[in-house]
Design goal:
Elements (H helix, E strand, L loop, with lengths): L1 H7 L2 H56 L3 H14 L4 H13 L5 H9 L6 H13 L3 H13 L7 H13 L3 H12 L6 H14 L7 H14 L5 H15 L35 H10 L5 H14 L4 H12 L4 H13 L3 H7 L2 H4 L3 H13 L3 H10 L6 H14 L3 H15 L3 H13 L3 H14 L4 H14 L2 H14 L4 H17 L25 H17 L4 H12 L4 H6 L13 H13 L3 H7 L9 H6 L1 H4 L3
Helix pairs in contact: 2-3, 2-4, 3-4, 4-5, 4-6, 6-7, 6-8, 7-8, 8-9, 8-10, 9-10, 10-11, 11-12, 12-13, 12-14, 13-14, 14-15, 15-16, 16-19, 17-19, 20-21, 21-22, 21-23, 22-23, 23-24, 23-25, 24-25, 25-26, 26-27, 27-28, 27-29, 28-29, 29-31, 31-32
Length: about 650
């Protein structure tokens, strides 16, 4: 039929029909092609758009980080990462933010970023800093090596400062001091880097390892830095002021025309331990009051200096502070309230900042509650919190009410509110830490332990939470509990020498003195510890602890905890002479003698026949010792 129709058409009509068919064919082919292209190309196009948007968020996050606007930086960094988790700039933004706010999770993001592209010098510095904060020396050393050996540019003073900090954390004091001095000798080092190098020098300086001239030079350098008008200069002033406050109260001021004297100018005739020049308090007061960046806390510190120099002016200076800042902004009111509370002036704080003013700021309101608590006005606190005059975070509200309940004798209500605070904290490690620390400070150790444990479950590398768990375990006096926490920490930080040492020490106590070791050939050793039969642990276990202790002592010969571990390991091997040799050629400052160090040394002295010396060393309050440590010197204290 179609063919007979074609015969009836003219040539022109046939040409037009064929042309129309070709157009339709082309349209159909283009449509099919568009579907194919859309199917295979939509995802890459979408990813490209998301990557571009993620980079924009990351750039904004970097700007906020540089300006210390942490809330905004967090929002932008998270937004970029959620859009495109694999985008390098988004990873960098999250890693940098977490590093600058000291969150150990940053290391995981730096590792992810390194798998995608090379880390910049700034990246590596952040990585070293956060690794040091988490005491992850293995990561810190790898990142530091890259910093110091990069071919694109030579290492800067900031890099050598990091090297000094790593050396200090490794207990390589001499190396840390040399590297810090290298920073101070570098003319390119900025004020902030010099300030940190001076602080590091002073932190590691002891009479045993540093001469008086070096200490004096460090203080003189700090005084010189304090002459400026920068943030670093202001921080140097604060350190000098804190040092002045550590001197005996009533120390008079020395008039001076300079703000902060330079090393070449006349020195004050009073020295700090005979080691370094003391900046006159009057100069520090003027410098703090006149510094262009000084805020209320710095000016209150200046009043502290005046009060310290002349205690008779206390009331007048407190009245002056109240008059100057009672009508100030919220930040100044917080500083004033904190300062008054530190002076024990709780009622004056309440009179100066009435409830109406306190309700205008969360931080001021919390200071108001603390002052009421110090005055035992718990019913008022409870009423304020339950009336919800000020909208507090539920975690904070519940933990404050729990404390009120406890002080008012409402035990059940207190327990319920602690639990509600824990529930409100959920999986937020920051809120969990706030709850745990508050509970620990207020004697609610069971709740603190649960909150710390939950925080470590949520953020396994959160060092502060692990330290909290360790403190609570130590306060409980249970060796097994302490060891369990240390063993958990060791799985996360296997290269941390302090954790290695403490875990091995606790394991040694449990094996030998806790009766948990196995008995080779069915035999028991009855020669130790007042004739009591002791279970002998596997020799491999003991040898391993001794080899670890020897390695730790070799790495840090001045560490008393390492030598204590080695001495105890050798003592339990029935090698008293080798145990006492551990203490040869070592000088120990009295303030570094822990109860554990004293008890092991006493046991070693007794084993070597120095009974009188052992008796002197063993005069340790029993509540300061673990049960196994008390057993260790039982023969000494019983006079056997």
């Amino acid at each position: 039929m179609a063919r007979s129709d074609d015969i009836l058409l003219t040539a022109e009509e046939l040409r037009l029909r064929r042309r129309k068919r070709r157009i339709w064919l082309v349209v159909i082919l283009l449509f099919v092609l568009a579907i194919v292209v859309t199917f295979f190309g939509a995802r890459p196009a979408s990813n490209a758009i998301k990557a571009w948007q993620a980079r924009r968020h990351a750039e904004r996050a970097f700007a906020y980080i540089d300006n210390a606007q942490w809330n905004e930086a967090q929002k932008e960094a998270i937004a970029g990462y959620q859009l495109q988790p694999g985008e390098p700039q988004a990873l960098r933004a999250v890693a940098r933010f977490l590093s600058r706010v000291h969150q150990p999770e940053a290391l995981d993001f730096w590792k992810q970023l390194q798998n995608r592209q090379s880390l910049t010098r700034e990246d590596r510095r952040d990585e070293v800093n956060i690794a040091l904060a988490g005491n992850d020396l293995s990561v810190a050393e790898v990142a530091l090596k890259d910093l110091l050996t990069r071919k694109d540019s030579p290492a800067s003073a900031a890099d050598w400062l990091l090297a000094a900090q790593v050396a200090r954390q490794k207990n390589e004091t001499n190396e840390a001091r040399k590297l810090a001095q290298k920073v101070l000798d570098d003319s390119r080092a900025d004020e902030r880097t010099q300030f940190q190098a001076v602080l590091l020098t002073l932190a590691i300086a002891t009479p045993e390892n540093t001469d008086a001239a070096s200490i004096e030079a460090a203080w003189a350098r700090l005084s010189k830095l304090a002459e400026g008008k920068t943030k670093a200069a202001l921080d140097a002033l604060v350190v000098l002021a804190q040092r002045a406050l550590s001197r005996p109260e009533g120390t008079g001021s020395v008039p001076s025309s300079s703000v902060v004297p330079s090393p070449s100018k006349e020195k004050d005739d009073t020295h700090h331990g005979g080691q370094a020049q003391v900046v006159p308090p009057n100069d520090l007061v003027r410098a703090l009051e006149n510094h262009p960046l000084a805020k209320t806390p710095h000016k209150l510190l200046a009043l502290d200096l005046q009060m310290h120099a002349d205690p008779t002016q206390r009331d007048a200076l407190i009245s002056r502070a109240i008059a100057d800042w009672k009508d100030a902004d919220a930040a100044s009111l917080v500083a004033l309230a904190t300062w008054l509370d530190g002076k024990g002036e709780y009622q004056r704080q309440l009179d100066t900042i009435p409830l109406e003013r306190a309700l205008q700021s969360r931080d001021v309101f919390l200071q108001h509650l603390d002052a009421l608590g110090a005055l035992d006005r718990w019913s008022e606190i409870k009423q304020l919190l339950e009336s919800e005059h000020f909208p507090l975070d539920e975690v904070v509200q519940r933990m404050y009410i729990a404390r009120c309940n406890a002080r008012l004798g409402e035990k059940t209500a207190s327990e319920n509110n602690w639990k509600r605070a824990l529930e409100a904290a959920g999986g937020d490690s920051g809120k969990l830490m706030t709850l745990a620390e508050y509970a620990e400070r207020n004697g609610a150790n069971e709740m603190a332990e649960v909150a710390y444990a939950t925080a470590t479950n949520e953020s396994p590398k959160l060092r502060a939470a692990w330290q909290g768990r360790l403190r609570l375990a130590q306060s409980s006096g249970g060796t097994k509990k302490i060891h369990a926490v240390l063993a958990g920490m060791l799985t996360i930080w296997p290269n941390d020498s302090a954790i290695q040492n403490d875990e091995a020490y606790m394991r040694l106590l449990l094996l030998f003195l806790g009766g948990t070791g196995s008995v080779p050939s069915g035999q028991k050793d009855d020669t130790h510890h007042g004739g009591q039969a002791q279970v002998v642990p596997p020799s491999e276990e003991l040898n391993g602890i001794e080899h670890l202790a020897e390695k730790l002592v070799q790495q840090n010969p001045t560490s008393l905890p390492h030598r204590t571990l080695l001495a105890l390991a050798r003592l339990e091997q029935h090698r008293p002479a080798a145990a006492i040799d551990v203490y040869s050629n070592i000088k120990v400052a009295p303030n570094t003698l822990s109860p554990s160090a004293l008890v092991v040394h006493a046991a070693v002295l007794e084993a070597n026949g120095h009974h009188d010396d052992a008796m002197t060393e063993a005069q340790i309050p029993p509540d300061k010792l673990l049960p196994e440590e008390r057993d260790l010197i039982q023969g000494v204290t019983n006079g056997e």
